[in-house]
Amino acid sequence: MHDLLFDFISKYISLTEDEKNAVVSLAIFRSEKKGTTLLNAGEKSNDGYFVLKGCIRTYYVIDGEEKTTAFYTEMEALTPHCVTTKASSEYYISCVEDSILLVSDPDMETEIFSKFPKFETLCRILAEELLAKQQINFDEFKTSSPEQRYLNLLQKRPDLVKRVPQHQLASYLGIKPQSLSRLRARILEKNKG
Amino acid sequence: MHDLLFDFISKYISLTEDEKNAVVSLAIFRSEKKGTTLLNAGEKSNDGYFVLKGCIRTYYVIDGEEKTTAFYTEMEALTPHCVTTKASSEYYISCVEDSILLVSDPDMETEIFSKFPKFETLCRILAEELLAKQQINFDEFKTSSPEQRYLNLLQKRPDLVKRVPQHQLASYLGIKPQSLSRLRARILEKNKG
DNA sequence: CAAAAACGTTCACTTAAGTTAAGAAATGAT
DNA sequence: ATCATTTCTTAACTTAAGTGAACGTTTTTG
């Protein structure tokens, strides 16, 4: 479990034994069952999650309907908006699969940052990288049709299309489940004809 | 000009005179005319921009059509994706208005971070905050119709709707210029009836 | 294991966005 | 100031997504 984490970190910075030990002593791992709710809308929390194994999602409930807007799988991090704003959460977070999560909170971060500034550099780089990736993602979303978005997702995250319920995928693609069904049928039809 | 910058920074961290001087001595300001291209697709660059005055945008050219995906106005920062990836840019950056920009590059950042680690903290916080905001933005985009997105923009960034050409706004909203025209007419019609 | 709930697909119908084209309005350049 | 270009709007038509409902399938759960 620690290896997964250190392999990931080693892509960005190299750690001394001291630093690794600091991580091990402060890291909080949590195993959660599929379907477990990690955060409810309306509640506050200081926990950020780093997915070591499994898949979690964020979703809103709008007019009684769940709208899934993001999935986080292996080696992806989610810092809920409410951690940053200190307000109550607009969305829910729950486990799509049985998952192993690394849980962090700002106090823990502050502590480790002051002892080992290298970790702040890591976090800055990760945040900047994510920000840039996310912008590209958003750009692609804006500039393509639902069908293109689905085909694009098939290319870029084929695992997600298999791991995740269709109706959750649909809202992730910005459409209704029926439209996703239809669109998939349309694509199959094209590839036959 | 410096005041604008320091007022902004003071919302996040407090600076000593030494630190302010370091910023002043390293900061590069640039005044650009409306329409100036700051970065061409296919080119590489290490420059990030912080908008002190004016408005810049990123856009793609897809099938010969400009697709504007983001606007940056006063006190907003843009680190182009190609700075992070060191690859050539997928998009163009240009000035929507005459603008005053603070230009940064990674070497300059490294220098100031090593002298004053506080600036790295500032950058980490800013990146994390932006990331969270951007996620919410994306969520709203996914969960609403073009009409709702337009109405939402009118609420949240009314200035943008006035400052920016309609056809650029349209792709920012993920639709065609004709659709934006029609949608606006539809809203007017509703408010009359 | 059986009943209930949730999920995925299909269909007919409605609504809105994409497309193509034309013309009016605004902007910029000489 | 005038001409050329770009931008915005309108309209008719096409295409695809939203909606509501039905139905078979899968998953939960008591």
* Oligomer type: homodimer
E-strand count of chain A: 8
Question: What's the total helix number of chain A?
Answer: 9
Overall pLDDT metric of chain A: 95
Please tell me about this protein's structure.
- 2 copies of one chain form a homodimer.
- Chain A is an alpha+beta fold.
- The first copy, chain A, has a domain of 114 residues: Jelly Rolls (Sandwich).
- The mean pLDDT of chain A is 95.
- In chain A, a hairpin with a 2-residue loop joins β4 and β5.
- Chain A contains 9 helices and 8 strands.
- In chain A, 52% of the residues lie in helices and 21% in strands.
- Chain A starts with a helix and ends with a helix.
- In chain A, the strands form 2 sheets. In chain A, strands 1-8-3-6 form a 4-stranded antiparallel beta sheet.
- At the A-B interface, β4, β5, α3 and α5 of A face β4, β5, α3 and α5 of B.
- Chain A binds a DNA duplex (30 and 30 nucleotides) through α9.
Jot down its keywords.
homodimer, 193 residues, alpha+beta, Jelly Rolls, four-stranded antiparallel sheet, 8 strands, 52% helix, DNA-binding
Present the secondary structure layout:
The structure is a homodimer of 193-residue chains.
Chain A: H1 2-10, H2 17-26, E1 28-32, E2 37-39, E3 48-53, E4 56-62, E5 65-72, E6 77-78, H3 81-85, E7 92-95, E8 99-104, H4 106-115, H5 117-142, H6 146-156, H7 158-163, H8 166-172, H9 177-192
Antiparallel strand pairs in A: 1-8, 2-7, 3-6, 3-8, 4-5, 4-7
Helix pairs in contact in A: 4-5, 8-9
The structure holds a DNA duplex (30 and 30 nucleotides).
